[in-house]
# Entry
Amino acid sequence: MPNQRFVYNEEDLSRQKDGSLTIYNRPALDGGVSPIYQFKIKLPGHKDIRRSAKTKDRNEAIRVALDAFEELNVKRLTGKPVRLVGFKKAVSEFADWYMDTKEIQIKKENRKSYLATLRKYPYDFFVTEMNDVSIDLINDDLIQDYFNWRRDNHNTSNNTLRREMTLMRSLYTFCMRKQKYIDALPDWRLPPRDKKRRPAWTLEEYRKIVRKMRIWVDADKNARVRRQRFYFQQFFLISANCGARVGELRNLRWNEIRAEEYKTGDKRLVLSLEGKTGRRESVCNADTQNFFNNLWDYRSSELAETESDTPLDEFVFCHFDGSSIGKMNKSFGSLMEYCDTQRDVYGEKYTIYSLRHFYAQMRLNEEVSVYDLASQMGTSVEMISRFYDQPNNVVRGLNITKSSKQKSSRDFVKYPYE
# Structure
């Protein structure tokens, strides 16, 4: 029974031996008694279930409590789930735990992104469309309905649906292990993976973009826009020559770049990247240093006006105030429209991630091994083989930055990563 120090007007309504039912009032915040009745249900083999009767009328509260008791007891006797926890409440509790827990090795920024996805489409469907359905009742049939809803309303790919189910699995693992709302993880059927080739430019298309990009940068009269375009120009060229993920480059700092000299006398820039697979070192193609030099020179000139030096712990891709540049999708879309290269020959739309796909395709054309490329890009051999037309007889052990380009000369400027 509820503790006498914290409840008022407690009344036992139990009528049989297969459980207990009590109604009571809680203390109010002002020190008095809340007029809204509460009730507690105890069923054999289950934790106490407490709910609000949502009424000040005693008789109505008794009716609500008895109806709830009978409903839950029938579910218990027929083997159906007893505890009813709505999707809305489950997501709210999961979000509080997920952002603070140290049990998972996921960056805060990524956690926020994952929660935003969970609170968008799954939330819209299970809370808005399905009237905040209990998590106990989200079975495979309802999940398949969710898949169809996403496809019909948002033209969602199977791969995206599979990623969303990974978030749902995390939510349900929390509900099972932490909150004890469910006894086991549900068995949901996932849609098959999409195996379509990811769009990437041909070398000729890439060269066309690079040529036109020089004009595009200065085509706008607004100085702020020209700065954005200049930074994106360097981002475009660096990304196409190292294969890093967008977020990895966006969070790169100057003190995470160094130069490596090989026995042949060749030098390559090495980036220390933090991504979804952890921290790794990524080797840039030859001449990529020129693009970093452009950024360093631009930023140094920009800060010279304020008589400041470029901090080594500053983001490489930064706003004037030094904060990291966020999404670059608008700049990418503007460039694609300017160059008239929005889609590939199959009608697939290019995205900013096509830079990573282009890098992979070019490296494979140079016969870099799948194993080396997977390590370089922070992904799996399976992913490389599945998405990038990888022939089976690539030669293992070739240098990641193998190229027929000649070593370029440059001005005698000392950069911090040399």
About this structure: Strands lie at 8-12, 20-27, 33-42, 49-52, 257-261, 267-275, 278-283. The two ends are 72 Å apart (CA to CA). The longest strand covers residues 33-42.
